[in-house]
Amino acid sequence: MHMFVKLAWRNIFRNKRRTIIAGTAIGIGLASLIFTDALMIGMEINIIESATSTFLGEGQIHRDGFRQTYGIEKTINNLDELVSDLKEEEIVTDFSLRTFSPAMISSPANVSSVELVGFDPSREKDLSKIDEAITEGSYFSGDGERDIVIGRKLAEILEVEIGDRVVVTVSQAETGELSQEMFRISGIFFFNSREMDRGMAFVRLNKSQQMLGIGDGIHEIALKFIDISLSRNKQLPFWDRYSVNGNEAVGWNVVLPQMESVFALSRFSIYIMGLILFGIVALVIINTLFMSLRERMFEFGVLRAVGTRPFGMARLIIFEAGALAVISIGLGVILGFAVTYIFTLTGIDYRGIEYLGVTFQELLYPVLGINQFIIYPLSLFILTCLVSVYPALIAARMSPVKAMRQGLL
Amino acid sequence: MIDKSREIIRAENLVKTYEDDSVPVNALRGVDLVINRGDFLSIVGPSGSGKTTLLNVIAGLDEPSEGRVYLNDKLISEMSGRELSDFRRDNIGFIFQSHNLIPVLSVEENIEYIMLLQGVPKKERHKRVEDILKEVGLEGFTKRFPTQLSGGQQQRVAIARAMVSQPALMLADEPTASLDSATGSELLDIMRSLNEKRNMTFIFSTHDKLVMDKARRLIVLKDGKIASDEVKE
After folding, report:
1. How near does any CA of chain B get to the CA of A382, in Å?
2. Measuring CA to CA, which of A264, A329, A352, B111 is 20 to 30 A from B104?
3. Which tens digit of pLDDT belongs to each residue from B21-48?
4. How high is the mean pLDDT of chain B?
């Protein structure tokens, strides 16, 4: 065994240039797989954080059925009890109470439909990034109950500026009668998200409750956890604990199931990429081994002649493939780690780019994981050994005489 | 009467036909041959007369199209690939014209290789390597690689490798072809001495007059048949 390992290792370096070229090609493939995987994880985290921290929240509590109909009469049950329980929750760091209603917003110049959201600005500040996205005016700086914050796109449509007046019309919950209020533009935000910049307007919670005629009722409690990964865990007891009394508590991945689907698709695309890459690697390895086999025909004939069993010949070829894999993996891991590590420090600037309906708010940092350095290299090693079985079988079945004759040609 | 206890090889009606570009080539056409233990024998003949083919068939490296080969009373043509490998490893030593050695292994490792396949313990291997290198006049060359040796030295290592497992039969295909006459003669003396000391059987396939002169038995092949079989006094 030891002799075959020694022989394989030395054989692989007989044609250094070929080994280096093949090893580098395979190594670059592995490195790119490690980098892409790290980038995808980073992108996933970035998208989740952008989506949840912008406005969505990591989890939400609603009245049953609200998410399906957005009926303004569907306010959360047992609100006071719920709020006091949430204050005691160790895994919840912040939460914000919100109302939602479709509304018409009109200025002297134009009119537009929006989603009117009411919240407590001080609580919301800890949960979403509306305050950070203000580009003009301020984020509910005073205590004016008629302050309204709108998106830049909406401001352009309405042709309004800070301090201008707008009229908001909503339909009341119980009676369905229209309720109109005049507001003053106190802030304009820009998220670079068409949906938000064009279609949302924020007012104080008590004002929206009053307009909707829902008393102290609210439609949503947006949640922030001590660890964002908790929100993705569908088995978390928290969801059951708060999905009672006609309410439902869900994570962001339930609110936005399409995002989870896209992540699954991304992971699948990595597997496809891996398969393509491994297919190319397999061809490189087979080609390298066959070239090496062809060059050493006489030698293989001699080895068979002096008594090396067919299995011994096969083992030698598989060991040579293994040696090539070890070199390639070494190169790939070093290169993959180095490149990825640099980007984990510098980040990649995708800020402002909208993807899956979410705008990247922060630099994108690839995430290095131990699996990238175990699963991919191990898969590559196993694949290399597997594909080498074909040339190994040929070497094993080789007649010593034919091998020596061909070796002399 | 044939003394069967002396026989090491018995070949009966060996026929070997190759296909060369779909044209059948009769390399051996019914060779009957008995080789005794301790023979120092040369198979000679013009190119294409079937010398190397006969050697290969005797060694179990190639299968005859017809006929049988017994080595130490064992019918080798019926052995499986694995059995043949083990049989060659334990009973036959090979010396080829050139490219005998594995270039990535040192002299010591090349010689050790067969013993490793045989499972000889390390200590015993090292002792045998030292002894055989002394015998072929290459003491102190253990760590050198084939590329660091002359052609003659490489052939000596090949002889050492073939000898070290103490096989019953040594087959040498044109062993002096790539050497100058002085080196060739020196090597033949080494082999002759081993033959005499250990009663080991040597079969050469050769064109070289020097080998023919040193051989004690000369078989001439012509067109795949034995034209003459002469034992020298």
Report:
1. 26
2. A329
3. 778 888 899 999 999 989 999 999 988 8
4. 87
- Give, in degrees to the nearest 5, the angle at Cα B58 between B57 and B63: 25
Tally A–B CB contacts below 8 A.
68
Q: Which residues of B touch A304 (CB under 8 A)?
A: 61, 85
Give yes or no for A409 touching B (CB within 8 A).
no
Residues of A in contact with B85 (CB under 8 A): 304, 307-310, 312
Instruction: Supply the pLDDT for residue A354.
Output: 75
Q: What are residue B139's phi and psi, to 5 degrees? A: -60, 140
Domain formed by B4-231, architecture: 3-Layer(aba) Sandwich (3.40)
pTM of the shown model: 0.74
Q: Give the tokens for residue A113.
A: 């439909």
Minimal-distance CA residue of chain B relative to A301? B61
Q: Please report residues of B whose CB lies closer than 8 A to that of A296.
A: none
CB contact under 8 A, A7 and B105: yes
Chain B positions in Cβ-Cβ contact with residue A303 (cut-off 8 Å):
102
Complex-level ipTM beyond the 0.90 threshold: no
Residue matched to tokens 């800890």: A126
Please determine, for residue A356, whether its predicted confidence score (pLDDT) is greater than 80.
Answer: no
- In chain B, where do the E strands start and end? 7-20, 23-36, 40-44, 66-71, 74-75, 92-95, 169-173, 201-206, 217-222, 225-231
DSSP tag of A52? I
What letters, b where the CB count within 10 A reaches 16 and e where it falls short, cover A291-309? ebbeebbbbbbbbbbbbbb
